[in-house]
Design goal:
Layout: H1 6-14, H2 24-31, E1 35-39, E2 44-46, E3 54-66, E4 72-76, E5 81-82, H3 85-89, E6 96-109, H4 110-119, H5 121-136
Antiparallel strand pairs: 1-6, 2-6, 3-4, 3-5, 3-6
Helix pairs in contact: 1-2, 4-5
């Protein structure tokens, strides 16, 4: 399996809106916490009602998000992220994530996200801003 270097992961983070204001030292510290996965087309990342343990960031490929009626809600591509809302509201996943094009995906555990937020409050503000915008678009 291809392994991305720490510096490749850090530069990838610079393209993610919730991390792009951070300096390289913080980006490297966050990148060091990344778990790396490869998903094949049609592979399920997670199901509806599954307990949330991780937040996901798309390095390459596409992930489709479906509601509980298997209706496509959103297509996500490189530099998009998903799975964050269930980490904070303690509810199970409210949608299904399925790989639609072979993908490399990085993820962070809930404890890593909470550590990052403690060390870099700007990440929490960015997450809140993104989440509130998504609520307005519903």
């Amino acid at each position: 399996m291809k392994q991305f270097s720490l510096i490749e992961k850090a530069f990838f983070l610079k393209n993610i809106d919730i991390f792009n204001d951070l300096d390289l030292d913080h980006l490297i510290a966050i990148a060091d916490k990344f778990h790396q996965d490869r998903f094949a087309s049609n592979e399920i990342v997670f199901e509806i009602e599954q307990k949330a343990h991780r937040m996901y960031f798309i390095k390459e490929g596409c992930i489709d998000i479906f509601d509980n009626n298997d209706k496509l809600i959103k297509k996500l591509t490189q530099n998009d992220y998903f799975g964050d809302e269930s980490l904070f509201n303690e509810n199970p996943r409210s949608y299904k994530a399925v790989c639609s094009k072979n993908a490399w995906v990085f993820s962070l555990s809930k404890s890593d996200i909470l550590t990052i937020i403690t060390e870099c409050p700007s990440v929490a503000i960015s997450l809140l801003s993104t989440y509130s915008k998504s609520l307005l678009n519903k």
